[in-house]
């Protein structure tokens, strides 16, 4: 498509909100090259740029319902990507030399990223391969409607002196969660422009993303007390605290082990996101992979051939926490 087709993109946004992973794959195909180039211009590093691209689309997919006008999807996407790149570039130095050909992401790696994004957000894998829908061209420069609207608001506020003493109204709520993260939404209600929104967890700064007009998102990765401060252009500010208790930071545990009919039977438990049975790995003492005989997600029971013990086990949960342990030979 040589020209922007905003109505078509808007329909894809609506279908994605209904859980259609193929629709999201089309949105991704239409935009990922543009977003990858933007990130590459910051870092000149293909690996950092790919990590940035994954973080961008996970955040967008988790907060797509906050986009009030689906036809502004491209502008919204660019805005969030700029914020992510600016925050990461403060800690990542761009290499002195770089290959300009790396500014384009190949379809194979783009497909891998798409599958990882859908899995991280709990969506089904898309049934259409990315290579079949990767016909969209990079979209043109964003328009300036939102910027003009903000300029008009700023001028109006400067003319209304009493508003310089207005204190913002701030509302904090849980927005959504995935297997590995929980997102909190910070809504600001004020006629004045927001100067800054900051958040800390135990004194450590957290990344803050503007996901809609005067709506901000934070994603703490640990439990604790988050302190969020919203400051307006007039210097007035409001501070809110959030008690975070739902982040899964605990790895699975082995409750019991026994031998039944020459099979090593392990009973596993995880009180958080749940055990990812498909990704359990085991290795013999010689380092050779050992396959599970069976597993039961309902009871948390997995079985191995007892004759292959001792076993080195890697037991992950769905939030990415992994228990690494060695189980020795067990007598019947």
TrEMBL record:
InterPro entries reported in the protein's UniProt record: RNA_pol_sigma_r2 (IPR013325)
A molecular-function term among this protein's GO annotations: DNA-binding transcription factor activity
Keywords assigned: Membrane, Transmembrane, Transmembrane helix
SUPFAM superfamilies: Sigma2 domain of RNA polymerase sigma factors
Keyword Transmembrane helix: yes
Transmembrane segments: 149-167
One Gene Ontology term from the biological process aspect of the record: DNA-templated transcription initiation
Name assigned to this protein: Uncharacterized protein
Organism: Hespellia stercorisuis DSM 15480
């Amino acid at each position: 498509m040589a020209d922007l087709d905003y109505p078509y993109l808007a329909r894809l946004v609506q279908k994605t909100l209904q859980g259609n992973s193929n629709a999201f794959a089309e949105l991704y195909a239409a935009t990922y090259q543009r977003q990858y180039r933007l990130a590459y211009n910051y870092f000149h590093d293909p690996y950092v740029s790919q990590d940035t691209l994954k973080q961008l689309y996970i955040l967008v997919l988790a907060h797509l319902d906050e986009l009030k006008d689906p036809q502004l999807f491209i502008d919204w996407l660019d805005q969030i990507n700029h914020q992510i790149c600016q925050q990461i570039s403060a800690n990542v130095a761009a290499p002195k030399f770089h290959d300009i050909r790396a500014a384009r992401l190949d379809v194979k790696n783009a497909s891998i990223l798409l599958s990882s994004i859908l899995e991280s957000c709990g969506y089904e894998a898309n049934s259409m391969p990315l290579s079949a829908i990767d016909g969209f061209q990079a979209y043109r420069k964003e328009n300036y409607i939102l910027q003009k609207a903000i300029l008009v608001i700023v001028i109006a506020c400067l003319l209304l002196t009493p508003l310089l003493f207005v204190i913002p109204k701030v509302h904090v709520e849980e927005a959504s969660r995935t297997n590995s993260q929980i997102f909190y939404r910070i809504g600001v209600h004020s006629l004045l422009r927001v100067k800054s929104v900051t958040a800390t967890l135990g004194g450590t700064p957290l990344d803050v993303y503007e996901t809609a007009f005067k709506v901000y998102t934070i994603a703490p990765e640990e439990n604790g007390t988050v302190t969020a401060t919203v400051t307006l252009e007039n210097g007035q500010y409001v501070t809110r605290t959030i008690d975070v208790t739902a982040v899964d930071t605990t790895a699975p545990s082995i409750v019991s082990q026994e031998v039944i009919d020459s099979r090593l039977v392990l009973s596993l438990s995880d009180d958080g996101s749940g055990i990812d049975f498909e990704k359990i790995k085991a290795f013999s003492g010689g380092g050779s992979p050992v396959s599970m005989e069976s597993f039961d997600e309902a009871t948390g029971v997995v079985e191995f051939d007892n004759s292959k013990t001792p076993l080195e086990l890697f037991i992950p949960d769905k939030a990415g926490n992994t228990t690494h342990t060695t189980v020795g030979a067990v007598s019947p």
